[in-house]
Amino acid sequence: MAGVGDFVTRILVVVAAVCLLPAGPASAAPDDGAEKLFTFKDQRITESSGLAVSPTHDGVYYTHNDSAAAPAFYAVDGEGRTRATFQVRGAQARDWEAMAATKDPQTGRGVLWFADIGDNLDGAWPNVSVYKVIEPRTIADATLPATRYRFRYADGARNAEGLMVHPKTGRLYVVSKEFAGSVYAAPQKLRTDRVNVLRKIASAPLMATDAAYAPDGSSYVVRTYFSATLYRPSGETIGRVTMPELEQAESIAYTADGRSLLAGSEGPRSPVYRVPLPAGSTPTPSPLRAEEEQKEPSPVARAGESDGGGLTIRDVLIWLAAAAAAIGVITFLARRTR
User: Fold this and answer.
1) Are 167 and 217 in contact, with CB atoms under 8 Å apart?
2) Do 192 and 148 meet the contact criterion of CB atoms below 8 Å apart?
3) What confidence tens digit (pLDDT) does each residue in 264-302 have?
């Protein structure tokens, strides 16, 4: 019966994904303030799954393709033109799903993180990997060395598509893509000689496809196929942000000034939108709050104890639709196998 259970789970995931896809054309709603920043012009960028703003090069954005691609990433300008292609030495690209960019406070160098964390087979891989690459000083084609960190989840393997790194503490977080998603924290000090353990600290919205930390560390965002939710580092919900309707919403990042979000999509010549954050949604940390954010975040929104900010009536309806579809499939199969 385990096979049947796995099958039903996959049906639920597929149905939910379909329900979460936008019903309208791929354009931003006229009243949400979103504007198209650029469109990727490089024909090699067909599955932009990760997105990040360069922490040291003005006007430079990074992206990489999804699974079945080489371990490589692209630097593009504000017009969507590729300025450089970087190969990553010492890395595999089993299923790259997300990236993040930070700045090393000691050296001032940019640091890029690439998350090979996709697992559509729900536990096929004994561990997942995140690669750390020092940002190049010059935007020109090059091969860059990577440091590999391996991870496993304390509560069992799962699929994930969200990666974020706190800009002040440097702590890495992974956000799972599930019906009951979660935020997982990595150890403060990562090890290369053994597998690092990811531990659940907070709940996440249904079917999260990416996540990012604000440049000042005062908030983070988790996006799904249809919306984005803002959180304080503690896991407390700040509010929701309407996302532009995209063909397959996969990536999100903060702008360098932290006042807007960048939303991307998979597909050839896919667009990147800039979405301004609502007034009051990005609180500037007080000295006390800033000090608290240097410590391990308190898990006030653990799975099963969410404050409700990540689940709406629409989410509930999606759950019901997915369940109804699954029941229909099970009934059909039962009749066929009598």
Assistant:
1) yes
2) yes
3) 999 999 999 999 998 876 555 443 344 444 444 544 344
Distance CA 51, CA 54 (A): 10
HEC secondary structure over 177-231: CCCCCEEEECCCCCCCCCCEEEEEEEECCCCCCEEEECCCCCCEEEECCCEEEEE
Question: The tokens of 98 are what?
Answer: 């997300």
Q: Cβ atoms within 10 A of the Cβ of 89, count?
A: 12
Contact between residue 75 and residue 291 where contact means Cβ atoms under 8 Å apart: no
Sheet holding 220-223, edge to edge: 210-213, 220-223, 227-231, 237-242
Question: CA distances (Å), 147 to each of 96, 190, 218, 247, 291, in order?
Answer: 15, 11, 28, 33, 29
Q: Write out pLDDT tens, residues 153-179.
A: 999 999 999 999 999 999 999 999 999
Nearest-5° Cα angle at 241, 258 to 101: 35
- Rounded distance between C-alpha atoms, residue 34 and residue 27, angstroms: 9
Q: Nearest CA to 186 among 255, 115, 252? A: 115
State the Cα–Cα distance between residues 75 and 14, nearest whole angstrom: 32
Q: Reduced to 3 states, what is the DSSP secondary structure of residue 337? A: coil
Q: What is the mean pLDDT of residues 84-109?
A: 94
Question: Average model confidence (pLDDT) for the chain?
Answer: 81
pTM of the model: 0.79
Mean pLDDT of 312-321: 52
Give the chain's length.
Answer: 338
Under the phi-then-psi rule, with left for phi > 0, alpha for psi from -120 to 50, and beta for the rest, what region is 77? beta
Amino acid identity, position 247? E
